[in-house]
Amino acid sequence: MGVDKRKNIIKITEDMIRILALFMLAVVFMMMMIAAFDKSNISGESPIGTYETFDFNEGWLLSSDKPDEEITLPFSPDESYGNQLDITNVLPDNITEGMTLLTRTSLSNMYIYIGGELRAKYTSDMLNGNPKYNPSGYIAINLNSGDAGKTIRIKVELKAHRALDGVTYGYGLNPWKDTIKYGAMVNIAASFVLMLGGMLVVGCLFLGRSYRVDASRNLGLLMINIGMWIISETKIRQVVFCRPSLARFFAYFAVELIVVFGCMFFDEVQHRNYHKRYLVMEGVQLLQLFINIVLNAFGVAEMYDTLVFSHIWMVVGILMSIVNIVTDVKTGKSGEYRITLIGMICFLIMSSGELIGFYTAKFHQMGTWISIGLIILMITTIMQVMHDERIASEKRERRHTASMINTIEIIANSIDASDEYTGGHSERVGYYAMRLAREMAADYDLSEDDILRVHYIGLVHDIGKIGVAESVLNKAGKLNDEEFSLMKKHPEIGYEIMSSMGNEIEGLLEGIRNHHERFDGNGYPDGLSDTDIPLVARILALADSYDAMTSNRIYRKRLTDEEVLAELRRCSGTQFDPALTNIFIDLIERGEMKVGTIEGLSTDKNGNIRKSAVLEAKLQADIHEGVDVLNPNHIRMLCYIIKLMENKEKAYDIFFIDRFDNDHANEELDKVIKSFIGNHDVNLRYTKDISLVALYNKRPAAIDMFMTEIIKVRGDEKWIRAL
Q: Which range of residues forms the domain containing residue 167?
């Protein structure tokens, strides 16, 4: 059988199980509603009677297959007593008008005689269908003063639970008081669980498209099912339901569905690592439920008789879940749901205690332990969901930030690569700005996130140069007034470009637009002054100018350290914020501001001068000196390519090769050069008499061979020069 076919079968099976489980859950709900509100056929139901509270448990004489003996109620007779029991006593003398006597039968027929007269009975033949087992229930008898001192006889026909409950009496409905009080907390807990389960399911319906809610949805269904089961098993179901006898159906349906919805929940929490196991268990339990229904319908066996088999599968399901949890703990997978794991363990322990109590505690109140376990499970699941969502949100934020940073770095590299004068400029400005921001953090209340933002903004502060004409951007010499007026537009261009991204990085737009503002108000584009200039822009103004002063220009070499400090002091209060300038100067004087250039040339991450910077400097110097460079734009494009590769720590080896005076010799030279040129290499004519060859990421042996072959053609190594 193919993998796809097996997957389809598993998917179909899974869908069928889910549909059947939901259908049976709906059946349980409908039957409970009928039981709670249908008053059309209640004549055969166990009577409620009228209310109070005196214990009448001492001095009962038990007649059975064994010799008569005096007992105290409640009492649990063993098998030696047989199945027919009679207990007798004498009613107290304080019995008066308006009193009620109350006792409970557990799946047994019961007859109550006072003074030899049958006053009440509750038997299975009173119910529709004449079932073998009548649901456990209370019998209440109205008393009067004439009953005082009379003999009371209670005849019990035991069927399943071998238990005789206590007897109370009192005025009106008062005998119900303790019973209702005892069952109220369990019913409140069950109602709370039922309500929360419904809220979970409804919430998951709305959140299903945005969040992974399969586990929470299945927990909601489990809570709804258990809540209905606890209410169906409560000792006061006669008060809750008009037709409590229907509990002989829906109570059993609900208890068997616990395994199904429990497996669905555990499966999702454990990320379906044991999906097939849970799927099989869900299918087996549903099959068992339908077998039980069929057997009951045809009179072969009642639900109570077959319940033991469902309990066996429940034990198997608990053991399987424990094995899966232990496996996850050993492999470390449990860390993915470690908070929910606490609730899962508590739920399994409490469920096991509930199951054990069913068989060992004759007067056990069903639902107490599992309610506690389920509430713990719900709390831990909600905590896990909140924890997971916080982690997921942080991951999304990190991915978003990483994407933003990557975009910024790409933009910054593109800016630097397109500007001959500023290779690495944006990267250096980002570093200088970040270092200054960190130094001033305490005084200006800057967080680490604020410092990182300053760095990112520094990387893209010159993005507007993308819109500046190359003839202006890369002019070999100082700009004239017209050209400078165009260059001054780059902050506004950058602002408009980045405004489409919004202000996700706080201060981004202000830093781009206002980094050329002056403290005295004579800057551009908005003429802001003093602290009206955003702080990030004042930081960038210093960082930008510092890099300009420590980098070479065609019309000047970089300033000396002394000249840089003098210029900063001179411009403090006019061009720069004086407070920030003092901090910046202090950093330089302490030697803590690492300069990102060597002899005015841009350096890479390892502190080595970039070959792209050397090539740019040569190009600018040659153009300035009147050298007839054939295609300057081609050389600039090569510089751009080399910069991009340098940012990825990939190397180009650059060679200038003098050409011959005759065409035939040059043909031989070009033939040799082309034999070494691959897809990533570049071969350009620098001038009429010089070829420029850039070899990408070649091994030293390949470089040596290239130079050897060129020297063979040229006859002397002086005709080839490595940059």
A: 54-172
